[in-house]
Amino acid sequence: MSSAKLILAATLVGLVSGCMAQHPVAGVKPTRNESLRTMDPARIQADTMGFADRFVTAMGSIYDDVEKRASNPAARDASHQLKTELAVGAIGSAVNPRPIAGLMDMVVLVRLLRQAAEDPWTTRTFESDAPRLVDTLKQKETDLRLVASQYLTDSQLAEIDLLADQWYSKHPDIHSLSRVHLADLPEPNTPLRPGQRPPGSIMSLLFGDPAAQFDPALREIELSRATSERMFFYLQRLPLLLSLQTESFYRQLLEAPQFARVMDNMSVVAGSTTRFADASSRFNEIIARFPQQLSDERQQAVVQISAQLSKQLDVSIRQLSDAVTVQREAAIAQATARIAGQQDLAVQQMTAALHQQQEAFVSNLEAATDRSITHFFKGLAALAASLIIVALLCALFGPRLRRGWSGHPEQPTPSKTQDFRGLVR
């Protein structure tokens, strides 16, 4: 029984050590060599999400300040549009199902935004605020390079920079960069001559499965956990994206040529006739109140969208919880079955070993008993033979020995009557 417990304990220790080998202890930051060797998708995704929050927060504050300081509507619209594109691109890269691809897309996005900020168009649009945008983007690019260097080699980072520079040199007038993804660029997907791409090319990382080295049960758990984290991350930031995109929609609607022509025609009609003076006055008041009404309607729309989003979020969370519970129970059942099988095998091996030892012990005991009985009977026979020989010797030589000791021939012993008579006389 003690041997079975030892075998079971050794099996459990092996399983726990294997799990710990695949999942490093949380809170211990690995070195760059360890990160490049393990390429843990959970750490890559967490670092990318963390940078996305820092990047959107910092750049959103800068663009808000630039929008307030802008001297013309075109600059304000451009600042808001760039802020929206930046948030959409950064959050979209952070929730990429392939974390390493999302990190590389983030590197491309930040580099292209920094190059676009250095373009003369930015200086013409934002005037004195352009250098501030460039400096902030350079700081964030440096921050992102430190994060990416934990999972990409120097040659891979250089290859990403080269591809981004090639794309920007061919599209210098495009300022909407949120939908630029490394896997969709024509430059890395063009056929290359043999030996042109080095062995450590980034294309080998874009379409690989980072969780392929895990056990199937652990792989399913890791994929479920990563999917849940991406879903919660995106849902928590969805109101921000909806607010930015809704405001952009209304800005574009108010700047549409058709809407401007309608407003001009209504002004001409109001100024050309006195019969519609009151109507024109009321219309002007309506137009004056339109931005406030538009703001109220936008707030109501945001509230309605938030309510619907909360309901959908609750449903999604319940569905996700059910799915995670089912997958967790399946993983536990698989692990239990595996442990039970190993336990049965260990018990069978121990039983066979004990049976063999028992048979060997019985055989040895029987052999020892046979030898002891044989020795006993041999000794008993020898003792009996010795006693017989001594008895024969005593029978043959006993009388002679007694005569030799007395010194005269043996005389008859007087009777008791004769002895009594002698005593009387």
Task: Describe, in plain words, how this protein is organized in 3D.
With 425 residues, the chain is mainly alpha-helical. Among the domains are: 169 residues, no CATH class; 92 residues. α1 packs antiparallel against α13 and α4 runs antiparallel to α11. It is rod-shaped and about 180 Å long. The N terminus is likely disordered.
Protein topology:
Elements: H1 2-22, H2 32-38, H3 41-69, H4 73-94, H5 99-117, H6 120-126, H7 130-148, H8 154-170, H9 186-189, H10 203-206, H11 216-254, H12 257-272, H13 277-406, H14 416-424
Mean pLDDT: 75
Strand content: under 5%
Q: How does the helix and strand content classify structurally? A: mainly alpha
From the N-terminal CA to the C-terminal CA, the straight-line distance is 97 Å
Biggest sheet character: none
The percent of residues in helical segments reads over 70%
If helices are DSSP runs of H or I spanning 4 or more residues, what is the number of helices? 14
- Mind telling me the C-alpha Rg? 50 Å
Order of helices and strands: HHHHHHHHHHHHHH
Per DSSP E runs of 2 or more residues, the count of β-strands stands at: 0
Report the principal-axis shape: rod-shaped
* Model regions low in confidence, pLDDT < 50 over at least 5 residues: 1-26, 196-200
